[in-house]
Amino acid sequence: MSDNLKHHRDTTASQESVERLSKVAKIEGFSDEEEGLVYSESELSMNPGNPRLQRYLVAIEYIGTRFSGSQQQATDRTVVGVLQEAFHKFIGQPVKIFCSSRTDAGVHALSNVCHVDVERISKRKPGEVLPPHEPGVVQKAVNHFLQRKDGDVMVIDVRCVPSNYHARYKARERTYFYRILSGSDPLSILEKDRCWHVPEELNLRSMQEACKVLVGTHDFSSFRAAGCQAKSAMRSLDELSVTEVPSTPYFPSITERASNLNNGDPFACSSQHKTETAGVGTNVGEVEGSTDGDSFGARRRHRCYVVTARSRGFLYHQVRLLVGVLKSVGTGELTVADVERILEAKTVSASKPMAPASGLYLARVKYEFP
């Protein structure tokens, strides 16, 4: 077979692959919380089958407030830009990275996933192709270069996948967390840009009842931002829940420490004598709830709530708009009946302002592997 004919067939196969992916994207409505539905040809294209390339699926975590979003931009610092630079330093040649989910500036990731094609070339003998690196080597080496700079991105897992395995289109499910801290005291600087501080008290039961209205398959036109380019607003929300959890960073109170001592915790040690006060062990001189020196300088804890949203794909800003409505239900500004009305209105103008980006975390992208 002539080289020209072979090249023509490879090019045709590559174009057909792009067209198939494009159709899949349109049919299944791939979209994420922070993105619309516009894909460049490079995003839709697959590895054309170059046997010298190894495709890796890479899971990463990052602090979203340090970036102007995840996708690469011409001038601003982005997650993909920083990650591509670290890979370049590792293998000595540029790479192109594709994320499973785009996130806006300020949105964090406990686990976002991307894929990258790497050709391992010998540094001692330029042009000589070596066997692919083991996933553990890739993770350790890329993290080395990431941590040498700002250290706000970290690779948490790496896996070898076939050349046609696409991080976005192979994703079966995405889970987002949203953290809300409720309380009248000022927010701790340790929580700055990590949550949404709501001064009012929140009614957890009412928020949970509102979730029941929103979970399931609906037209979520009232919960997508104006910039959303998805052709359909129909989405299946597999989970929407609100849970109260300990605020973080979490440190034990006087009562909890004393309780461990009195319960015989072998790892709890104190040089002070134990006494019994109202059924709870405390150290001498430490009175829980006192207004003296024991309470001076002690910060009162906020109540922490986590909203969990799980679906195969989300509309543009859908999660943040959902959280904005749930918060309004928690403060009493809206009722559960109001949530039903907003959903039926099918226009974002009927909704409440969306929650800020800083409380949102991409928690997990789920895959099925052969």
UniProtKB/TrEMBL annotation:
<dbReference type="GO" id="GO:0003723">
    <property type="term" value="F:RNA binding"/>
</dbReference>
<keyword id="KW-0819">tRNA processing</keyword>
<protein>
    <recommendedName>
        <fullName>tRNA pseudouridine synthase</fullName>
        <ecNumber>5.4.99.12</ecNumber>
    </recommendedName>
</protein>
<dbReference type="Pfam" id="PF01416">
    <property type="entry name" value="PseudoU_synth_1"/>
</dbReference>
<dbReference type="InterPro" id="IPR020094">
    <property type="entry name" value="TruA/RsuA/RluB/E/F_N"/>
</dbReference>
<dbReference type="InterPro" id="IPR020095">
    <property type="entry name" value="PsdUridine_synth_TruA_C"/>
</dbReference>
<dbReference type="InterPro" id="IPR020097">
    <property type="entry name" value="PsdUridine_synth_TruA_a/b_dom"/>
</dbReference>
<dbReference type="InterPro" id="IPR020103">
    <property type="entry name" value="PsdUridine_synth_cat_dom_sf"/>
</dbReference>
<feature type="domain" description="Pseudouridine synthase I TruA alpha/beta">
    <location>
        <begin position="59"/>
        <end position="169"/>
    </location>
</feature>
<feature type="domain" description="Pseudouridine synthase I TruA alpha/beta">
    <location>
        <begin position="210"/>
        <end position="368"/>
    </location>
</feature>
<dbReference type="InterPro" id="IPR001406">
    <property type="entry name" value="PsdUridine_synth_TruA"/>
</dbReference>
<dbReference type="GO" id="GO:0031119">
    <property type="term" value="P:tRNA pseudouridine synthesis"/>
</dbReference>
<comment type="similarity">
    <text>Belongs to the tRNA pseudouridine synthase TruA family.</text>
</comment>
<keyword id="KW-0413">Isomerase</keyword>
<dbReference type="GO" id="GO:0160147">
    <property type="term" value="F:tRNA pseudouridine(38-40) synthase activity"/>
</dbReference>
